[in-house]
Amino acid sequence: MSTTPQYDAIIIGAGIAGMYQLYRLRELGLKVRVFEHGSDVGGTWYWNRYPGCRFDSESYTYGYSWSKELLQEWNWKEHFSPQPDTMEYLDLVARKFDLRKDITFNARVSKATYDEAANEWEIETENGERARARFLITAVGVLSATQMPRIPGVDKFKGISFHTSRWPKDEKGFGGKDIGMKGKRVGVIGTGATGVQLIQEAAKVAGHLTVFQLAPEFCAPLRNAPITDDEMAHIKENYPEIFKKCRESSAGFMHNFVMKSVFEVSDEEREAFFEYLYNRPGFEKWLGNYVDTMIDPRANALLTDFMARKIRSRVKDPVLAEKLIPKNHGFGMRRVPMDTNYYEVYNQDNVTLVDLRETPIETITEKGVKTSDKEHELDILIYATGFDAVTGSFTRIDITGVGGKKLKDKWADGPVTYLGIGGHDFPNFLTLVGPHNGATFCNIPRCIEQNVEWVSDLMKYMRDKKLTRIEPTVKAENEWTEHVAESSQNSLFTKTDSWFMGVNINMPEKKRAFLLYAGGAPAYKAKCDEVAAKGYEGFEVR
Ligand code: NAP
Fold first, then answer.
1. How far apart are the first and last CA of the chain?
2. Which residues have CB under 8 Å from 234's CB, separation 6+?
3. Which DSSP string corresponds to 173-216?
4. Atom of ligand 1 nearest to the CA of 143
5. Residue 502: CB within 6 Å of ligand 1?
6. Is beta strand 109-115 parallel, antiparallel or unpaired with respect to 120-125?
7. How many CB atoms within 10 Å of residue 376?
8. By alpha-carbon position, which residue is closest to atom 11 of ligand 1?
9. 45-82 pLDDT, tens per residue?
10. From CA 418, how far away is CA 475, in angstroms rounded?
11. What backbone phi and psi angles, to 5 degrees, belong to 111?
12. What is the pLDDT of residues 187-209, one digit of tens each?
């Protein structure tokens, strides 16, 4: 008899999705085990603890909405919560709902295999631990497969060096360790949302900071501030209204596009509105703008011009300013990094921008970074080079479905999914926030809750009806995959290269395909609800 531990469901990952899924399945009375790579809960917020790491979502729209008690107990300290506070919050959740007892930490799942005869999944961790369950639920995150650059010599550097998502822990375990950047020669490669957050902090303390930039992003002001006691009391009173607003918005935020064209208003009115939004906190200037700025290239060009002028006004050296202005995409066509004083950093004497389009990196050396013109000597070198986005956290696990079919092969030309929650040949395999899922372009916890609740209802349905196997049909997954492509056609996201499109300079083998769902969170939820109401239409359930 097998001694492999047996569960009703195994969840991979103890981030925001995995924690809530565990709670909900336990409430249903299921025997559940979570396997987590890290040594604690938190997922994204556990791994990303570099200085400056914080929400780009309003904090009070980000927390879990399912426990009234938790909502009243927790006080957010800042409008955009810094990472250590978020970890403190998630620690409170884990303690309050006693989640850790059902989580195996330091256990990276490396293999998951469907056993047709037993109708069970067997997982194996890197440490060789095995477990079996009828259902396998992934909560592996969209941006968790760390991607180092493919530059010669990355292992040669003798100073302190790591990827931003591997920043060491501080003593308390919530935040990141002080690695001693003060007065040192610090180098950062990468200027995406992560690099931008880190660079602002590093510039405050480094003796000299060298930023290695390939292509710049359009950043926009976050406008963070502390939350006063009065504000927090008001937020607590208004949680139902806040969450309602998020539910009704296209991407789960408090912001919604203005249903007007930039061309319907005068030049003065448009400029004044852009200026108003620029002074507002968070993503409003992106997701609360005129609706055609994200659909019509001519409308986007007007907003892009406004944002470029803002960069020019913030950077003193006009030549440098031009290097910081993207020329290959418009504002909001890629994920917008939020900044506080990012552009002003380049007015400081202790900061140098190395434009890698002019002087490419040739190699990493023992002493630093060798570009085509010189060797930049450094004490610390940080890689803010991003992730094998969306699909990487799946394809780095050896996932085998019916008849030995590999998920990696199925997705070789881009993901093929039904609702971004499952795929044919992979029965009882449910992917929270998987590729093509409505939660991928969303204020993520808002849509995570929708995903988790839908999966939990499915689990209850199957238990009540004594059903044991669910698998999307080929027809349903083809239709959904086509719908994902069609619904992104109008969006400017597909007109440029970014991680949304699966483009990663370090992964030339990755096929260009839209990995998210651009139909909007309300439409996605309506579709999922309809599928459930029709007895899980599009799935073969038995
Ligand atoms: P990213 O957006 O993919 O940026 C990676 C950066 O590294 C880019 O500037 C890229 O240049 C550069 N790079 C990659 N390989 C390189 C190489 N070989 N040589 C030189 N430069 C190289 O990754 P990220 O900044 O970690 O952000 C990823 C996503 O995480 C964000 O878009 C966002 O969704 C999320 N995030 C969220 C928050 C938040 O909510 N607060 C904070 C941080 C990140 P190219 O673009 O030219 O390839």
1. 27
2. none
3. SSSB-----BTSEEEEE--SHHHHHHHHHHHHHBSEEEEEESS-
4. 30
5. no
6. antiparallel
7. 21
8. 214
9. 999 999 999 999 999 999 999 999 999 999 999 999 99
10. 9
11. -150, 140
12. 999 999 999 999 999 999 999 99
